[in-house]
Amino acid sequence: MLKINQVSTRIAGITVLRKIQTEFKAGSLLAVVGRNGAGKTTLLRVVMGLIPSTEGTLEFDGDDITTQPGYMRSGLGIGYAPEDRVMFPTFTVEENLRLPCDVLGLSKAEIDHRLERTLVVVPQLKEMLPRSGSALSGGQGKMAALGRALMAGTRLVLLDEPFQGLAPVLANQYAESLRRLRDMAPELCVVVTESNRSLLRDLPDDTLTLERGELTHASDAAGAH
Please, which of 31, 81, 139, 152 could form a disulfide with 207 given CB 3.0 to 4.6 Å? Predict the structure, then answer.
């Protein structure tokens, strides 16, 4: 699905990602773990088109999207939930969820269908729909951000540090939502970043480690021992 070929990124003259080489495959739940500052957020932003890469290429279904702007990547079916959630405070939760699809110009019937599916995956959102985006707790905001990412992400969903700061009850609900998502959309690729590997429990199919901007696969590290 998405191939990341020798991608490097510099921000303010500092190299943040160093020749990242990996593939996000359809039907997998991948974890990217690493300490704060390792480059996890930057990697997702590069994939989403929010930060340019300084070298390397990104291929989505064989097409080069390296220079494609972020809004066009959403049109490919890529959804993104940033760590800081970014809910529009003057919109209701439902309006926040519908917004990416409205921007993409989808029909009302298609948006309604996606919202219905999202509420099955994240049932906690049903009672939040009429609330203002500013009326959510931090944990509720993360659930809403997951829902919004699912509205756009029909092929690939990027979740940045979703478990950080969640109370245990909400963390369990979030994990259950990801399990439901896997059952409902087995062809979807979900990428989750996390600094605390233990929070991911048994969710990932594969784990990648990002350290000082360099990416290693768990299988590579095991083979080195």
Answer: 31
- Residue range 49-92, pLDDT digits in tens: 999 999 999 999 999 999 998 888 999 999 999 988 778 899 99
176-195: b (≥16 Cβ within 10 Å) or e? ebbeebbeebeebbbbbbbb
Query: Phi/psi at 67 (nearest 5 deg)?
Result: -105, 5
pTM of model > 0.85: yes
β-partners of residue 4 are 22, 58
Short-list 185, 221, 199, 206, CA closest to 23: 206
- Cβ(48)–Cβ(100) under 8 Å? no
Farthest-apart Cα atoms in the chain, separation: 54
**C-alpha–C-alpha distance, residues 72 and 119, integer Å:** 25
Which residues is 142 bridged to in the sheet? none
Burial of 202 (0-12, 13-18, 19+ CB in 10 A): exposed
Q: pLDDT band at 222, cuts 50/70/90? A: very low
Report pLDDT digits (tens) over 17-28: 999 999 999 999
